[in-house]
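User: Need the bound-state model for zinc ion:
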Amino acid sequence: MARCIELSRIAAREGELPFACVICRDGKVVVEATNQVSRDGDVTRHAELVAISTAQRILGRGRLGGCTLYSNVEPCVMCSLPMRESRISRVVFSIKSPLMGGFSRWNVLDDKNLSSVMMGYVPKPPEIVPGILMQEAEAVWHEWNPLIWSIIRKRGVFGGHFRHGGDDTRGDGGEQSVEGPSSGATTSGGGRGSQ
Ligand SMILES: [Zn+2]
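Assistant: Bound-state model below.
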């Protein structure tokens, strides 16, 4: 995740919004990507989709089982379904996306109906690990543009507490504030090795 956050800083330097993604397997980086929306003039070129496309070229279509995807911001709903279909095993992210997120707004990432109805096509939901290095990830957005970041936060586009569907994803009964711990929580048993 630290590398992913550094990549988000590089994306901002290159004229993109500060989004980045890293996919790893067996402790090795498979692919690193930054947002390429401005460069390519294409709103579908989110860092996660760029990374998933490249990873599938390397590992094969739908063969990302055992992979962990790191994103500095919660993946949007557009990027979330390909994560399910490509069989990514674990999704780790830093900043919450309450307006567009594929977990906290529209629950594509953890939707168990997808796998129960479409058995063999969509596997069971990945492990979700939110809030990892959140303060570090938010610092990049602040560096990028303090005014715009404050507006983004104020409007509730990014940032805030990690809660979903009434469940507390920290699992300890408390809320995680945006100024809270930089190590996050998991929906299914610990953020081991996530950083
Ligand atoms: Zn996206």
